[in-house]
Amino acid sequence: MADRSSSRRVIEVNRALAGSSEQRGKTVRPKRVGDFPGVAKAHLDVARKLSSPLLMGPPLCDELVALVQHLFSEEEAGLVRHLGQLAGTTADEIARAEHRPREQVEPALTHLALVKRAIVCSGRDEKRKYRLLPVMPGIFEMVLIGESPEALSPWHRRFAELFEALYATGYAADYQQRQKRPTPMVRVLTVGRAIEAHPMALPSDRLEVVLDRYQSFGVGQCQCRMTMQVAGRGCGKPLGNCAVMGRWAERGIEQGWLKRVSRQNVLEIKREAEAAGLVTWIMNVESTKGQCSCSCCGCCCHAMRIVNEFNAPGVLAPAHFLPQFDDARCTGCGRCEKNCPMGALVIDHDKKECRHLVARCIGCGLCKVACGDRGAIAMQAVPGYRLPYKSWFSLAYHSAPGMLQGAWNAWRSR
């Protein structure tokens, strides 16, 4: 169960309770460079970089190498292998490393950053620097967020298939299990209708208040549901509800992977998503520079599937509200169970009782909305709740120990 004595709790999974009917085991098979005799050195160099535990990468394996080969041509991989994640590298530096003229290198890098979106860039002209992204979060999201679900190119469809094959190996669970200090990177916003008159609701609990900090807003496509749609396992829920705010939105709009919208548009999109049974969550920080908000489902969202499918703690900060149940009012209809994205509710239809698996609950409030006027569910504030981090520096500082431990555990397991 979740440790309620901690000031910052995350989903802690009790294996006796949290396993779903479709639990997966890890199938990833780490290999060495010598196990890929027919693969170009440039591709292997990139795969080795992306496999770094400091990037939360998968081990060097067949699935990772196949994804890298699809993402980059051999020529592109020759450029990408010189990139770092933090400092950034200029086109001149990469040209010198590859013994090629800048005039050949720069267009390829620009294409990778602004068309494929497989790397990122910042700055302009000769001062522009290029950086390597992790596989997830990073490359996966950027490649798909700006694409049309109805008109995905064969290249993008194949990318989605290869990424899902890599994710299905369960490698991501290596970074969540056995952590003494898990990383609460994101937090769920309880559905507004579930707490609209709650006296304990804070400004940080309300999406409309969060949006008031920003002037610019952009919207892109849900990468997770798009990927599952390609795999033939889509849930049919809305896709165009990944919202970005502030400076991040301006950058995405300028580069063409976000559509500019108004604050009111964002609220309407998010309410529509919640009505479809999607969970609204944002980064666990109150920064005024930039913010992003996903609308997620337990069947497609890769962060939530770590809990649902691989029985590993997630990266969600502890909920501010959790449901409480009144058995006397419960009719045993099962609507709350059906609408819970995490499988945290089990209804005994004979006894008309609801069993609440707290270890799986994220406090989204969809169960209360589904219950409606029956009044069998009320959202109650959790004692000891802590506000989101005040800045990205604070989030990084407090998250670093857990991230380093996860990287260490992944390195040792390989």
What attributes characterize this protein structure?
414 residues; alpha+beta; Arc Repressor Mutant, subunit A; 2 domains; six-stranded antiparallel β-sheet; 13 strands; 38% helix; globular; disordered N terminus
Description:
The protein starts with 14 loop residues before the first helix and ends with a helix. The protein is globular. The chain has 2 domains: 15-22 and 173-413, no CATH class; 33-169, Arc Repressor Mutant, subunit A. The longest helix is centred in the last third of the chain and has 22 residues, at 392-413. It contains 17 helices and 13 strands. By secondary structure, the protein is α+β, with helices and mostly antiparallel strands. The strands form 4 sheets. It has a 6-stranded antiparallel sheet. The chain has a 3-stranded antiparallel sheet with strand order 1-3-2.
Order of strands in the sheet with the most strands? 4-8-9-6-5-7
Q: Between the first and last Cα atoms, what is the distance in angstroms?
A: 29 Å
Structural class: alpha+beta
Q: Into which percentage range does the β-strand content fall?
A: 5-15%
How much is the radius of gyration in Å?
A: 22 Å
Number of strands: 13
Outline type: globular
- The helix fraction, in percent, is 25-40%
- pLDDT < 50 stretches: 1-21
Overall domain count: 2
What series of H and E elements makes up the topology?
A: HHHHEHHEEHHEHHEHEHEHEEHEHEEHEH
Largest sheet: 6 strands, antiparallel
Provide the residue-averaged pLDDT.
85
What is the tally of helical segments? 17
